[in-house]
Amino acid sequence: MTGTPAETVLEAIDLVKHYPVKQGLFAPARHVHALDGVSLDLKRGETLAVVGESGCGKSTLAKCLMRLEEPTRGRVVLMGRDITRADKRTLRALRRQMQIVFQDPYASLNPRWSIGAIVGDPIRLHEPLDRPARRRKVAELLETVGLGPQFMDRHPHELSGGQRQRVAIARALAVNPSIIVCDEPVSALDVSIQAQVINLLKRLQRTLGIAYLFISHDLALVQHISDRIAVMYLGEIVELADTRAIRATVLHPYSQALFSAAPVADPEAAARKTRIILAGDVPSPVDPPRGCRFHTRCPYRKDVCAAEAPALRALAGRLVRCHFAGEPGFPPAPTAPAAAVGAGKEAP
Amino acid sequence: MSVVLLVEGLSVHFRTTLGVVKAVDGLSFAIGEGETVAIVGESGSGKSTVALAALRLIPDPPGKVAGGRILFDGQDILTLPDAAIRAVRGRRIAMIFQDPMMALNPVYTVGRQIGEVLRLHLGLSKREVMAEVVELLRLVGVPAPEDRARQYPHNLSGGMRQRVMIAMALACRPKLLIADEPTTALDVTVQAQVLDLIQSLKDKLGMAVLLITHDLGIVAETAHRVIVMYAGRKVEEGSVARIFKDPRHPYTQGLLEAAKWEETEGALLREIPGVVPSPFDMPKGCSFAPRCFAALPRCQQEAPALQEIAPQRPVACFVAQGMRT
What we know:
The complex is a heterodimer.
Chain A lengths: L7 E14 L8 E14 L3 E5 L6 H8 L7 E6 L2 E2 L5 H7 L3 E4 L13 H12 L4 H14 L16 H13 L5 E5 L7 H18 L2 E6 L2 H7 L2 E6 L2 E7 H6 L4 H9 L5 H6 L30 H5 L5 E3 L2 E3 L28
Helix pairs in contact in A: 3-4, 3-5, 4-5, 5-6
Chain B lengths: L2 E14 L2 E14 L3 E5 L6 H8 L8 E10 L2 E2 L5 H7 L4 E4 L3 H4 L6 H13 L3 H14 L5 H4 L9 H13 L5 E5 L7 H18 L2 E6 L2 H7 L2 E6 L2 E7 H6 L4 H9 L38 H5 L5 E2 L5 E2 L10
Parallel strand pairs in B: 3-8, 3-9, 6-7, 7-8
Antiparallel strand pairs in B: 1-2, 1-4, 4-5, 9-10, 11-12
Helix pairs in contact in B: 4-5, 4-7, 5-7, 7-8
């Protein structure tokens, strides 16, 4: 293990996850293509965001990386070790390196356990500490996440959503992991509380050097927190680039539509912005479109898009999966201005 | 501009085993014809209760409108006879909810559910109903409306269901549409479709919209005017342009700061410390004072009343009103 700043802590290589769908007794076996050949790497201390709409496979990706789901094909490499086929005992030891914080802090904490027991449980499993030492460590952890030791004997129902999420973070920190997978960690929280939790995650990253794999559908938020962003559509990565590069320009038509659709909390910017309204819904992942998976909704599709699936290729320091990306003037800048009413003018 | 909905001094209380919760406390506002007014606030701010009260849908018990008037087209919703309120609900004021799966009946086709509104309120014949249902589904951008009308809610995607809800809400061309978090359950690109749809239908039908949301981005992009609620009270009101450019209440300022993710790349966000106070343990003075960076000694003792600090800009904050102690 080298100590260089670019050290890769977690790697997905060509991950595939298909879930069988049962239909009729004699119907041919069909599969939900949740993940189809996803590769990415997470560097020490960085934040890599995975964005996309429901059904794009971002949560399945998180579960496969954590080995909470068995990938159908492909490999997961944690700190240089292939863990794709690791057995239960090995996995348990490996989970010290990799923790997860879930979306819903109401469902992810055992309601019958005290906060002290919840946060202390991973320590009990992974470290040979006696009770008083464990309690001291739990108190420290609660302090770290801004709760204080007085929470130790309370139960989840006494806590607000934001406080519960802090408990979930403290539990993840308990075993000093190198990686925390954050699956929509703030989307169940109120706006003013989201900022508190995001700031906490950032402070922890600075002091402890933890890498975050940040799963989210909130595009404004991921631009704030992440170093790199991977955009997923129907089980595939369609674009992966530095956050700076994404903010400057996007090359895939889906990323373009996705980022243009995200509401901006600024009426003047909203008035200048051009929103691309995609036609239709995301196609069923049981039967993803042939050729480019996005071609059924792509405003710039051509014949080749329905015939041939584009490969994920390197282009100007990023990865993009589109036949036409990189051609001058592609994707074209949207023309019709967004219909923002309240912007820049007083009420009628 | 004529006023469609006028709310005056509305108070809604809920009786619970732990005591009385003042979900809405002395709220007043007006919505003009063709205007979109957004109520923003966090959970527990009372914003959804306002929406329910406007249709007289507060469950009683435990809820009770403890005071105030809600005038719709000059009629007081709160004192109308039951038969009259049923003629208003769904016909002249329509509502769409956050979760279309909860609001649609799973055992009826969507065509039948939309048709029911038309049959009840407009007394159309069977054939007329079917034609109108297809027309409505086409209006809200549902592809193949004849086929879709014969399908059940579970056959449709989330975005399609929300369109069905909107079709149902618009069936009688209401004067006022109340949208309670209409896109919270939807994906970003579908959210853009639905907001766009509400916007264009609003222009086409000239209805007023009361938008209840926690998402400041949606407010910035769709509303004319904003009402900010905190712990059951209006703390600030103003045009979208003014509120976003020049928020005066420290809570509004905090909310806007906390939503500026993009501009604060890398840096820490300015956060509002603490949590919304428990409704059973409200602070004595201003309910925001315990979390406020600008709180004065006076704020702990006395709740500030709304005061216009500029034309059309009521703010309930001693600091914004120019007090120094």
